[in-house]
Amino acid sequence: MASKAPATGRLMLGFRKWYYSMCGFNKLGLMRDDTIYEDSDVKEALRRLPENMYNDRMFRIKRALDLSMKQQLLPKDKWTKYEEDIHYLSPYLNEVIRERKEREEWMKK
């Protein structure tokens, strides 16, 4: 059974890359974290982002909106690749969620 683990890992990676490509946001130059629904936790995480990361995010979103309105895609060489898509917001979001849960626990006492 141990011999099937690497093949399963490669298969899952292939599926992730295929799914990433099929979602389509990468064809507009967006990253995965650019597409997260902005609830109160995400808004707080965005507030904590360094200014240059926030500005990069806003540029990508505005460019994607412009392309979407024109019903165009970026040239293929400018698409966001699976390997280049970093989860820049996740550390901040995890911290905000952890703080909120800790605050909720504190208020229960």
UniProtKB/TrEMBL annotation:
Gene Ontology cellular component terms for the protein in this record: mitochondrial inner membrane; respiratory chain complex III
Location within or outside the cell: Mitochondrion inner membrane
Major localisation: mitochondrion
Record keywords, A-Z: Electron transport, Membrane, Mitochondrion, Mitochondrion inner membrane, Respiratory chain, Transport
Any one GO BP annotation for this protein: mitochondrial electron transport, ubiquinol to cytochrome c
The UniProt record lists the keyword Mitochondrion: yes
Alphabetized InterPro entries for the sequence: QCR7, QCR7_sf
Keyword Transport tagged: yes
UniProt membrane topology term: Peripheral membrane protein
Family from the record: Belongs to the UQCRB/QCR7 family.
Subunit structure and binding partners: Component of the ubiquinol-cytochrome c oxidoreductase (cytochrome b-c1 complex, complex III, CIII), a multisubunit enzyme composed of 3 respiratory subunits cytochrome b, cytochrome c1 and Rieske protein, 2 core protein subunits, and additional low-molecular weight protein subunits. The complex exists as an obligatory dimer and forms supercomplexes (SCs) in the inner mitochondrial membrane with cytochrome c oxidase (complex IV, CIV). Component of the ubiquinol-cytochrome c oxidoreductase (cytochrome b-c1 complex, complex III, CIII), a multisubunit enzyme composed of 11 subunits. The complex is composed of 3 respiratory subunits cytochrome b, cytochrome c1 and Rieske protein UQCRFS1, 2 core protein subunits UQCRC1/QCR1 and UQCRC2/QCR2, and 6 low-molecular weight protein subunits UQCRH/QCR6, UQCRB/QCR7, UQCRQ/QCR8, UQCR10/QCR9, UQCR11/QCR10 and subunit 9, the cleavage product of Rieske protein UQCRFS1.
Function, in words: Component of the ubiquinol-cytochrome c oxidoreductase, a multisubunit transmembrane complex that is part of the mitochondrial electron transport chain which drives oxidative phosphorylation.
Name of the molecule in the record: Cytochrome b-c1 complex subunit 7
Species assigned in the record: Lates calcarifer (Barramundi)
